Amino acid sequence: MSIALTSHGWTQLGPHSYARRYEPYDVTIGLIVGSDALLVVDSRASVAEGEELLADVRTLSDKPIRGVVNTHRHVDHTQGNAAFKGVDAIGHETLDEVAIGLSSAWSTDLGDCLVEVVHPGAAHTAGDVVVKVVPDRVAYVGDLVEESGPPAYGDDSYPLEWGAALDLVVGLCEPEATVVPGHGDAVDRDFVQEQRQTILDVANQIRAAAAAGMTIEDALAQKWPLEPSLLEHAVRRGYEQLGVPAT
């Protein structure tokens, strides 16, 4: 994993790959610079924030922007799309925000840089995608992986399927790959595997609690791999997926 700071506030992760963290949500944005065009990964939480991002993109390159990939539907990753006028948003077909919707995969050649966008399955949301910069061995994974905090289970998450999605992410990444989370600094594949195991442990405990007939309250009173206060949505969603009444 090779990382170097640039003079423009971006962190360079490979010959074509950059990342930058932004407040107020500590979201990590990606930029891929090819010889012919650029690809932006996520767009921040408002048009004004998107305009700031666009200005920062232009400190590195004035090449045309091929698209803005939304790694998932949450507002801190999509609501800056409109700042990129005339640029298509790309993401999973379940996202209302995108002009180019993929069901499984999409790719583009930025000139000297092949980029693959892959849907690994439902996980943090129904429509997560991974952006793989093939020559750089860099993968932008959105909130499938978190570095600055624990995995974020929301009321639209798929806690029982998330681990399988991360299996695919690990399979896409070479041992020396750099992985860019949706929030926080870049990590390596070992970090992803460790977080995957935590997510699998949570899923297995949800299944066991449901099989034992526990209420959600009783299930959350157990010891968990993560702080139980962070797991109410995970347990509730897991019970829904298993067809267990949310009592």
UniProtKB/TrEMBL annotation:
Pfam family membership, one: Lactamase_B
Q: Which domain of life is it from?
A: Bacteria
Q: Which InterPro entries match?
A: Metallo-B-lactamas, NDM-1-like, RibonucZ/Hydroxyglut_hydro
Q: Where is the Metallo-beta-lactamase domain?
A: 26-183
The name of this protein is: MBL fold metallo-hydrolase
The organism of origin for this protein: Solicola gregarius
